[in-house]
Amino acid sequence: MNQPIGIFDSGLGGLTVLKALAQKFPGESFCYVGDIARLPYGNKSPETIRKYGVQILDYLKRENVKALIIACNSASTVFLNEKHYQGLPLLNVIGPGSRAALAKSADKRIAVLGTSATIRSGAYGKTLRQLDPSAMVIERACPLFVPLAEEGMSADDITLAVARRYLQDIKDQAIATVVLGCTHYPLLKADILKALTPTTQLIESGEVLAEELSQLFAAGELRPASPGSVGELRIKITDLTDHFERLALQLMHPLSIGPLERIVL
Amino acid sequence: MNQPIGIFDSGLGGLTVLKALAQKFPGESFCYVGDIARLPYGNKSPETIRKYGVQILDYLKRENVKALIIACNSASTVFLNEKHYQGLPLLNVIGPGSRAALAKSADKRIAVLGTSATIRSGAYGKTLRQLDPSAMVIERACPLFVPLAEEGMSADDITLAVARRYLQDIKDQAIATVVLGCTHYPLLKADILKALTPTTQLIESGEVLAEELSQLFAAGELRPASPGSVGELRIKITDLTDHFERLALQLMHPLSIGPLERIVL
Q1: Which SS3 state, helix, strand or coil, does residue A178 take?
Q2: Which of B184, B229, B249, B256 is deepest in the core (most CB within 10 A)?
Q3: How far is Cα B10 from Cα B112, in angstroms, rounded to an integer?
Q4: DSSP letter at A156?
Q5: Rounded CA separation A26/A231 (Å)
Q6: A78: Cβ–Cβ under 8 A, 6 or more apart, which residues?
């Protein structure tokens, strides 16, 4: 097996990121940790989120990964300014997501949707305004989106009603670029686009991290897998129920994954 | 301070139980632990729930409590048959809730609402049928109720739509006795009654545990606080955010509580 890239999330939402990366870099191996036993991170304090994050980064380092990716937006907010962790390249989703949003927005009016922790941190707003002081940013907490996504309630009247309540004024202001600042939110893309307008440009963590990883390879800061190699995907979670096993298979389809492995942190 | 009674829940929902007990037994002191850093328990495996539960029971024992109450229904399912923990009386909510439901139901047709973990365990159904083999029991997982309650979305159109989806067939079958098998659910009582019928008899954990505690005192199995004493309420949580501090004050109103104390387990 190639030396893998480590990636973590509070739960399985980050598999939307893993899938995007595995499809873009089929030669790379990935080791994913989903901290299901302690999810969601989105309503926890920064101190607690950091403590859990450090435990997982340490775990991934012991698994001999060559780089570390924090797929979880809530966790990214507490590692925002750290480019390395114990000598390994460390990527978070906030910076790349912000750069992608600015690149795709014509009028620099951007909305960011996230968990309570992500929005409370103001990390996206600060990053976007640092990158472009003229940017106009609306940050909106959407705390029910994670449980709705975990219940598989996409393309659902109730989810649409929740989305309309969270997003009506973003639609009214005709904001055309919206950052999905949580790995679960791509699962509710249909409802979010319906509550906004179908032409809204959605920025997803998986795509922006794939782009970021490309740049690390191109800049020689990270060595790609040797040519012709076939990557492996290992998924480790801190709790295991049938529900999560099924959800993981759905999220990763059509990619094949081995059995989920339960770990204790 | 009197020797307190220990009580724990996965989060702050159990404060509905603490409040009922503190109002019924104003001379008793209570030490409450809410495991906010790791909530919700309702979608975790029995092994993980038990591990967390044991950590909290051990903590409460070190706090010199005279009895232990598991307010959390999900945690109660994994301690269902244990009447003592390291020599201390141990109460869970499933047995008392089942007895109360049977006592109040004329036709022995009972619905139980709970988290995925509580319903998956089948603990209420088994207990009810052991107590009365003629009982007809419907168990229904309502996984979105906890996040809706935590978001303060009671008496809300979205919550009512969710309640109608979960409860329509219980209403159609005219089931008159419904166990609120999660400490958060009393917070959504208005919506639940509207989705059912206003005359539905709801069984709440707080009331049934108050009755259970009365019986322990009456049977001499637990010594009550000395006459004339004034109880104290201590609330300890494993994570602390402003949101939870406000929620705790709301839930305990009009009772006064000291500042929330953060503990590490």
Answers
A1: strand
A2: B184
A3: 19
A4: -
A5: 6
A6: A46, A49, A50, A53, A121
Contacts of A239 in chain B (CB under 8 A): 44-45, 48
Q: What is the identity of the amino acid at B61?
A: K
pLDDT in tens, A148-165: 998 889 999 999 999 999
Rounded CA separation A254/A15 (Å): 13
Q: Is the pLDDT of residue A108 over 70?
A: yes
Active site residue B72: yes
Q: Is the Cβ pair B44, A239 closer than 8 Å?
A: yes
Q: How far apart are CA A237 and CA A66, in angstroms?
A: 20
Q: What is the pLDDT along chain B (265 residues), one digit of tens a residue?
A: 689 999 999 988 899 999 999 999 999 999 999 999 998 898 899 999 999 999 999 999 999 999 999 999 999 999 999 999 999 999 999 999 999 999 999 999 999 999 999 999 999 999 999 999 999 999 999 999 999 998 889 999 999 999 999 999 999 999 999 999 999 999 999 999 999 999 999 999 999 999 999 999 999 999 999 999 999 999 999 998 888 888 899 889 999 888 899 999 8
Predicted complex ipTM: 0.88
Whether B31 is catalytic is no
Mark yes or no for CB contact A165/B158 under 8 Å: yes
How would you write B200-239 as a 3-class SS string? CEEEEHHHHHHHHHHHHHHCCCCCCCCCCCCCCEEEEECC
User: Cβ of B162 and A158 within 8 Å?
Assistant: yes
Query: Which residues 155-214 of A are in CB contact (within 8 Å) with B?
Result: 157-158, 161-162, 165
Task: Please give the Cα distance from B76 to A37 (Å, whole number).
Answer: 18
Planar angle of CA B4, B8, B9, nearest 5 degrees = 155
HEC secondary structure over B115-151: CHHHHHHCHHHHHHHHHCCCCEEEEEECCCHHHHHHC
- Contact between B216 and B222 (Cβ < 8 Å): yes
Angle between helix axes B242-252 and B15-24 (nearest 10 degrees) is 30
Burial class (CB in 10 A: 0-12, 13-18, 19+), B217: middle
Question: Among residues A141, A203, A193, which one has the least CA distance to residue A164?
Answer: A193
Annotated catalytic residues of A are 72, 182
Pick from A192, A144, A199, A189: which is nearest to A168 by CA? A192
B-chain residues within 8 Å CB-CB of A44? 36-37, 239, 241
B166 CB burial (10 A radius; 0-12, 13-18, 19+) = middle
Q: Specify burial of residue A259 (Cβ count, 10 A radius: 0-12, 13-18, 19+).
A: exposed
Backbone torsions φ then ψ of B19, nearest 5 degrees: -65, -45
Q: Return the residue matching tokens 């009895």.
A: B67
